[in-house]
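Comment on this:
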Amino acid sequence: MEIKAEARNIRMTPRKARLVMDLVRGKEVGKAMDMLKVMHHKAAPIISKVIKSAVSNAENNFKLKGPFLISKAYINAGPLIKRLETRARGRANIFHKKISHVTIYITERSN
């Protein structure tokens, strides 16, 4: 059984967050949390919070116990925030602030 946890509208670029997500995908939850604890990246605490939420969902909602494995984990792009920057001669540059959606699925590890 796969248990899902998700964080939406996180103000970070999906491309940079995927670098951290690729390191923890497929790992056991304990090892993944240890790895995220020592990483100096903006995405690390957010991903660890989503993993904790998935474990909490499994224990409280589905009464599952035991070691969990991160079966699927991905980061999708959310809506863009568009901002204008004034330029010379009455012109403007538009730039986009990117938003991410973090989704993690965990399963019980079979022995």
